[in-house]
Amino acid sequence: MVAYLIASSILLCAFGIVAASLVRARSRRLALEATCSRLESERDRALAAARHAESDLRAAIEHGRAELARYLPAQTAHVERIAELEARCEDLARRADAAESDAAASRTRLCGLREDGNGSLGELGGELARLRALVDDAIGHLVKSFTSLDRCMREQRALLDDAAGGGRERHLEHFLHEVSNVFAQLVEHASDSSEVALAVAATIDDVARHIESILGAFDEVEHIAEQTNLLALNATIEAARAGDVGRGFAVVAAEVRKLSARSNDFSLDTRRRVQALGAELTEAKRRVRQLTDRDSSFASEARASWDRLSSEIRAVDRDTRHVLAETERLSAATHAHVSEAVTSLQFHDLSTQLIAHLEQRATHLRGLLDDGTPALPTPLRRDAPVHQQSMLAGSIELFAS
Amino acid sequence: MKTILTVDDSPSVRQMVSYTVRSAGYDVIEAKDGAEALELAQGRSFDMVLTDQNMPRLDGFGLIGQLRNDPRFSATPIIMLTTEASDEMKARGKAVRATGWMVKPFDPDTLLAVIQRLIG
Questions:
Q1: Given this model, what pLDDT does residue A382 score?
Q2: Is residue A233 a contact partner of residue A257, using CB atoms and an 8 Å limit?
């Protein structure tokens, strides 16, 4: 019973609940229907709006696609570039870090190097000054040497021009002709002399013959003297026999003997002199004969010798002219070399300017090392005043006026 | 005899220019910078001037500028003989009315040819 009552209660409750629920459901259905119709009308509006929006969206999408198609490649490139830049930034950052640590180390080293550098720069200045002095000294001597060489060469060339110049060959021919004439005259004179010598030799022979006859006469004189001596001796003997009567005669006979002896002495002395004269004449004749022999061959030998000599002179002249031509060629070559040397010697001016520029740089650097400010009041010229790479002659430009 | 003024602070260049032009029969006067050249030019005139650019006291441009203001040197041939070879420097030379520009080192025969052409 209780269970029945409980079940009935429950059913009643359920029924009530269901009834209430039905009422609520009806009202809710009505409400839902109203909502549905509102929603439907809203849906229709929304659909219309959606369609409109869809068409706008499609247009926008199309436009967007077109835009995208235009910008996409650039965008891609930008993206790649950005990626690359990012990578480089990272790399730079890494390098900056590394550089910073290097810089710290370098700063430490720099402090040490600054002191070394200052010392080295001071030495560099001194060395540059010494270098400049050395180069100045050397170049002075070199320029003097080369200009002297060139001067000597010009003088030599002038002399050669004089020697090889106008009419030298003609002068030589004239000279050879003149000498030939002189030789012809000489040969003629030699021939004349030869004839004279022959005549002299004949005369000497005549004189020699006369001398021989004179010597024969002396024999006669000496014979007479001897005979006279004998006669005087006999007279002396006869005078002695005659005694006192013959005393006077004996004196005369003694005087006659003395005269005979003197006569003999005189004859002997004269004979010696004439013999000496004869010997001298013989020598003179020998010499004249030598002269004659020499003169007779001299003419033809001299002529042949002169012919040989003149052809040798012409050969020497040809050689000389060849040497002159060669020397002239060498002179021209020497002039070219000296010109080249004068061009090259200007290295002194170029190097001096570069050294001065180096000194300025050293001074500038020293100032920077000392206190971080340049020592020079004016700004340092960055480029050197000399750019030549070789000692080839420079260009020339004449400006139009 | 024609006289040439050579202006250079390098003794060796003065020596070589002098020797070269003397050997061709010209007379030469030497000055070691622009200021000395101007002093020399006060008392006399020259048939031609050869000048360096970089010199102490007064450089080549300064010298040419002052010489050109003097009526006696307004038409005198003035050649720059310098190591400078840039177009900018040449333009400055032209602006101060230099007659021409020769870049060092010079060849003696070429220098003589230029002189011969300008003053005979």
A1: 64
A2: yes
CA–CA distance, B74 with B52 (Å, rounded to integer):
19
pLDDT in tens, B14-47: 988 998 999 899 999 999 999 999 999 998 899 9
- CA gap A123, A383 in Å, rounded: 24
Of B83, B94, B114, the CB nearest to A388: B83
Instruction: State chain A's maximal CA–CA distance in angstroms.
Output: 274
Please give the C-alpha separations between residue A229 and each of A226, A232, A239, A270, A374, in angstroms, as whole numbers: 5, 5, 15, 19, 143
A143–B107 C-beta distance less than 8 A: no
* Chain B residues with CB-CB distance to A153 below 8 A: none
Name the DSSP class of A346.
T
Q: What is the number of residues in chain B?
A: 120
Residues of A in Cβ contact (< 8 Å) with B98 = 399
Q: Note whether B4 and B26 are within 8 A (CB).
A: yes
CB B103 within 8 A of CB A391: no
Q: Where are the domains of chain B?
A: 3-119
* Tokens linked to A200: 């002299």
* CATH architecture, domain B3-119: 3-Layer(aba) Sandwich (3.40)
- Give the distance from CA A276 to its chain's centroid: 80
Across the interface, of A140, A346, A397, the residue whose CB is closest to B105 is A346
B93: closest chain A residue by CA: A399
Rounded to 5 degrees, what are φ and ψ at B101? -135, 120
Distance CA(A88)–CA(A78), nearest Å, equals 15
Instruction: Report the share of chain B in percent with pLDDT over 90.
Output: 82
**Dihedral sign for Cα atoms in the order A321, A327, A330, A336:** negative
Whether residue A353 is predicted with pLDDT greater than 70 in this model: the reply is yes
Can you tell me the distance from the alpha carbon of A84 to that of A102, in angstroms, rounded to the nearest whole number? 26
Chain CA centroid to CA A319, Å: 29
Phi-psi region of A372 (alpha: psi -120 to 50; beta: other; left: phi over 0): left
Q: Do residue A398 and residue B99 have CB atoms under 8 angstroms apart?
A: yes
CA distance B72 to B65: 13
